[in-house]
Amino acid sequence: MTKNVLFIMCDQLRWDYLSCTGHPHLQTPNIDKLAARGVLFDRAYVQSPICGPSRMSFYTGRYVSSHGSTWNGIPLKVGEMTLGDHLRPLGVRTALCGKTHMTADIEGMKRFGLAPDSQIGALVSECGFEPFERDDGLHPDGPRYARNDAYDAFMKARGWPDENPWNTVANAAEDEEGNILSGWFMDYADKPARAADEESETPYITGRAMDFIREAGDSPWCLHLSYIKPHWPYIVPAPYHDMYGPETHLDPVRGNAERADPHPVFGAFMEERVSRAFRDDATRTRVLTAYMGLIKQIDDQMGRLMAFLDEQGLTDETMIIFTSDHGDYLGDHWMGEKELFHDASARIPLIVVDPSAEADVTRGQKSHALIEAIDVVPTILDYFGGDAVPHIIEGKSLLPILRGQTEALRDFVISEYDYSMREVRKRLNVDVQDAKLTMLFDGRWKYIFAEGFRPMLFDLQADPDELTDLGADPAYVEELVRMERLFFRWTRRTSQRTTRSNAWIADREPSLGEAKAGILIGYRNEDELREALPEGG
Fold first, then answer.
1. pLDDT tens-digit series, residues 53-70
2. Could you give the CA distance from residue 530 to residue 525 in angstroms, rounded to a whole number?
3. What is the Cα gyration radius of the chain?
4. Cα 497 from chain centroid?
5. For residue 352, what are the β-bridge partners?
6. Buried b (16+ CB within 10 A) or exposed e, 111-133
7. CA 107 to CA 529: how far, in whole Å?
8. Is 148 helix (H, G, I), strand (E, B) or coil?
9. Computed from CA positions of residues 429, 432, 434, 440, in that sequence, does the dihedral angle turn out positive or negative?
């Protein structure tokens, strides 16, 4: 039987904004059906709470400090192996429909003579994916961001004459006088986008994914279907724009004590423009109306896509992974956007459907194992029968859990954040090399190491909403020391020796191997050499 993988990622989808993860008002029946067919991992965390580095970890199976792409726009260096590099030798076509947030290492490619438009150069530039259709979903007017010509042509064929339909149709509304209301402005978030549902980004890229699957035929494939939504601009077409009024919105998780004497880094992020915007209840209400509508639209497209797989006869041979690259504060903890490590930002939904008969024992279960985003690559590689390469891939395959094993994968999860590119760094007067944060979470204690500042500490057993930072409380010194030791243990990992495996090194005979090669170090005479060498050596 041919095996395939459909690796679905949403952008900025919070872990708790699905009905299968506990939202009381936002019903997502099609995503819930995926959870019923597979395993819902309810303690999954990203390697960085921002798009670029999170995705580079998803695609390499490596921590941010290992692959080096620490923020949006910082290239993944040439030579980092990605999912496609691991799968192509197995004969698996590995393609992309949607977003990667990849920035190519142009300087590195020049050094190696790799042209971006060559076959190898194109793969290196696209995180190892064949770019069936790349669309990072950010196409404002201006030279910085490239347009999606295919989407522009699609909208033109639909009758839209706009020069940039992404900007003025899909992500804009219109008032009664015909004036364009840009979706970039949060005041318009509760208005319907000018685009019809079927013209908007989520249905469009779903259709393109279906085009790829038709084209792929009987050959094994791994398709990364990567949606830009519910990422901003927060705007959605009818009928989704008014499905979720204020009566369906959850109250923000925040307390006045958080603002009274916050950790300096947390305090600086609370003063960002987007955080201040979410303090306004009217603004938050408009955004939540759109955000929830965007998720409902994604769920409907999941229904469309799963029906398509059924029609194509592919359901029983396709592993499905559904996840997100990070969350969205939405006003929780006096924050907007993402970037810090509260669960609203760093925790993600993760559903894996393994069609194999061996996984029947876990269907519909919820796993409480501590999971990292880097576990996706080794899971896919394992599913296709590839050999484990732990000297390269730092994540762990989820197949054992999917097939009934209960042993824990790890003692704690890690997430890293480099805030050197943010205004926060300047506000705090922190040097570029010191603008870094690292989170360790062991299932109860969440510890954040902040270079140059005291650590943060949250007890999620006593304080599941993460409202009380215990990092300055002398009563928790022992816990801080314990977590610091775990952090030190993690930093001592070997992560850069990717050209030789531990097994290759362990199988060598260091001194005898050199002696057999004629390198004689430390021997006093021929008799000692003869004694050292095995018979016949």
1. 999 999 999 999 999 999
2. 9
3. 25
4. 24
5. 39, 321
6. eeebeeeeeebbbbbbbbbbbbb
7. 50
8. coil
9. positive
Alpha-carbon dihedral sign for residues 20, 26, 31, 37 = positive
Instruction: Please tell me the distance from the alpha carbon of residue 420 to that of residue 146, in angstroms, as a whole number.
Output: 25
The string of pLDDT tens digits covering residues 156-200 is: 999 999 999 999 999 999 999 999 999 999 999 999 999 999 999
For residue 439, give the nearest of 457, 424, 425, 423 by alpha carbon. 457
Residue 402 is encoded by which pair of tokens?
A: 């999917």
The DSSP secondary structure of 303-359, one letter per residue, reads HHHHHHHHHHT-GGGEEEEEEES----TTGGG--S--S-SHHHHEEEEEEE--SGGG
Q: What is the DSSP string of 415-430?
A: EEEE-TTSHHHHHHT-
Instruction: Determine the Cα–Cα distance for residues 169 and 240; give it in Å rounded to an integer.
Output: 16
Amino acid at 32: D
Tokens in use for 462? 């006593």
CA dist 328 and 49 (Å) reads: 9
Map tokens 């009274």 to a residue: 260
**Residue showing tokens 């050199």:** 514
If you search the block for the tokens 């005979």, which residue do you land on? Answer: 509
